[in-house]
Write a structure and sequence with these properties.
Two copies of one chain form a homodimer. Chain A is built from nine helices and eight strands. By secondary structure, the first copy, chain A, is α+β, with helices and mostly antiparallel strands. Chains A and B meet through strand 5, helix 3 and helix 5 of A and strand 5, helix 3 and helix 5 of B. The structure holds a DNA duplex.
DNA sequence: AAATAGACTTAAACTAGTTTAAGAAAGGGG
DNA sequence: CCCCTTTCTTAAACTAGTTTAAGTCTATTT
């Protein structure tokens, strides 16, 4: 199992002792995903806190008209989950799907709680992870409210340049909240 | 000092022992705010995690054209802060201001860290608080991407009915990402 | 090499939401 | 009680972004 990236990631918040990484190893499951493979479907509870080792996943909803809307992407060293459903056990409104062939590490609710019980270091780390996610989401809300589609696209290019060359156009447009057609227009204007 | 609402709030996550509430009391400062009084201004570091006892605050940015955009509101028993600036000490991009005369309880970074050191219960509680904030923000992103202005307004009415009657129209419009004029139009159509 | 399908672009007609401007209502302070 | 400021509404002209529909460009399968 390729656990090292996760150990490095968590250790970057607070270094882990060997007993802690050992305990972690017991609780984590590796999973290899094909392109377009789902790890969460609407109507089902979200049973995993998922860490991306390699590849890229997206979280999206399908609205009443059947249109997909990408909420967020998670690439290397990022987390993806429906926290609400994960903790409550209630059916999720979201889908999570691999955009590229990906390798992920997953933790189930009771295993995560066991980690929390084993060492409060994990509480501290996941507190900071949640806070960082808040900051990212807050910025996103800010951009959605205050920027035009073109400005949002340019901000996306700067912030997620590595992703912008890996993701199909449709997914970027959906993330920006515009149509692929309009994204095309913007690209032509900005000449990129 | 009116500490009880905060004790109740934190205790609803994990009940606090008397030593913990005592420790909390030492670290928390009460502050009474007039309408339109700022507790955070752009360019200054955010020095407080702020808990709202009564009244209502808003967090907003002013964009390049000088237009205000409300990111979020916090009323009774809610938290408001620029987490990023709070932890990093860097200048914030946000303003936080009282919309109504308000009473708040504030904690400064080192006092919060002292709480974390005193009892890891506080880590656990603030982890959940951050996670809940993530859920709320994620829903907001979802609404901004997938709903029309009218649908967003109706969703806002349902979710924040208590606030919708307390907040001036301008602030609601800014929160929804539309002009007050257009909000007026929507209101006329929905006959509410 | 042809066939099929997925990803991206173009353009014209359209619509949701903005802008500008003006007037009506509604506080709140002296 | 009236003035003054702030809040809300209406309407017309405008623009950013959508819709629809067709066409190009790859890549993959046969």
């Amino acid at each position: 199992m390729t656990l090292q990236p996760l150990i490095d990631h968590l250790g970057s918040y607070i270094p882990l002792k060997q007993t802690e990484t050992q305990f972690l190893e017991e609780k984590v499951t590796e999973r290899r995903l094909k392109r377009k493979q789902h790890i969460l479907q609407e109507g089902f509870p979200c049973r995993h806190y998922t860490f991306v080792v390699s590849g890229c996943l997206r979280m999206f909803v399908i609205d009443v008209q059947g249109i997909e809307h990408n909420i967020l992407f998670a690439a290397e060293n990022d987390w993806i989950t429906d926290i609400s459903s994960f903790h409550s056990g209630k059916p999720s409104r979201f889908f999570i799907e691999a955009v590229e062939p990906s390798v992920v590490l997953q933790i189930e609710p009771y295993d995560l709680y066991a980690l929390y019980t084993h060492s409060y270091k994990f509480d501290k780390i996941f507190k900071v992870i949640a806070e960082n996610k808040c900051v990212a989401l807050q910025n996103r809300v800010l951009q959605m409210i205050s920027l035009t589609a073109k400005e949002r696209y340019l901000a996306f290019l700067e912030e997620y340049h590595h992703l912008s060359v890996r993701l199909p156009n449709v997914h970027i447009a959906s993330y920006l909240g515009i149509t692929p057609e309009f994204l095309s227009k913007i690209r032509k204007e900005t000449a990129y």
